[in-house]
# Entry
Amino acid sequence: MIRVMTFNLRTAEAADGENAWPLRRELAFERIRAFDPHLLGLQECHDAQQAADIRAELAGYEFIGVRRGVPPAPLEMTPALVRKDAFEVLERRIFWLSRTPEVPGSTSWGSAYVRSAVQLRLRHRTSGLELAWINTHFDYTPIAVRESARLLRRQVEALPLELPVLVNGDFNAGKRSAAYRELLGAGSPRPLADAFRLAHPGERKEGTFHAFGKLPFAQAIDWLLVSPHWRVLEAGIDRTGGPDRWPSDHYPVWAVVDL
# Structure
């Protein structure tokens, strides 16, 4: 069984008052420890203020990520954390969500910010299972969301068909969007499925972005997708927090999968 979590931490650079990072950091780490993931995909990790905390608190994980751009861009990254006792990292690649994905810091399609993804090939230390895992954070401008989904779909389809795949992140788009349909890839030789919906068919309370409890209905923009190789044993959204202080302005999404 493999335990996977995706969690937008909300950048420490933001002036969030009672929900500033120093005041909620322990709440965020409590949610991560409560699930105890083997694979943890983070978004909005601020290199100067959050990355050091994460490395110190989660020392049992290999931290793989770089700043998505250079100053004056925000010093954020989208790191993938791999539990060292569970997985060996065979290959690692960081690419940018642009027309030139191999060019660090590149942008396209009117993106408001530089955006990137971490792609790993892993070997499970106990079973020898190999898998591909991608963690990302899309921009919020509509054209960039659509084109980033197309780019990520091409990256998935370039992987060997026999290789199990996990894809997760903050996609800044809901589950009725073209980006969601693009990534699921119905009819493709490399389809993906929504882990939460596989575990909870018919359930539509799937919102994850809640703006520190300020939205009347949370938006379902954080997803965890799986290839058909996987069986989803459990999946959920950790809604712990509030009413005055929250681990983040996003709820983490998690799944337990096996072959």
